[in-house]
Design brief:
CATH topology: Double Stranded RNA Binding Domain
Largest sheet: 4 strands, antiparallel
Shape: globular
Oligomer: single chain
Structural class: alpha+beta
């Protein structure tokens, strides 16, 4: 039997901070945000993946439905910001949930 894929992608908004670094927010996923204090976008993507995985695992472990991901084209970004998709394998972040 083929196991359903637990890989999911959500758009993340990377907003440049005045002091440097980025605030990273997932508009579709309540509570999923992080920040980095330098301009290392690759590190920001790693941080974004981790926070997204942890928050989505929490949704699953509490029996909550996962939010639908917006189309990246639907999101408006302000000046000094950009939007990108962040992909995460939710299985990596699940702790106590048994997968079937």
């Amino acid at each position: 039997m083929c196991k359903k894929s637990l890989v999911k992608a959500y758009p993340a908004v990377f907003k440049k901070e005045e002091q440097g670094g980025y605030f990273i927010d997932f508009p579709d996923v309540q509570g999923a945000y992080t920040e980095i204090h330098d301009d290392d976008v690759a590190f920001g993507i790693e941080m974004a993946e981790e926070v997204l995985g942890l928050v989505l695992a929490d949704y699953i472990e509490h029996g909550d439905s996962l939010p639908e991901a917006s189309s990246i084209n639907q999101l408006r970004n302000e000046e000094d910001s950009f939007v990108m998709l962040v992909r995460v394998d939710r299985e990596k972040y699940l702790k106590e949930t048994k997968l079937m």
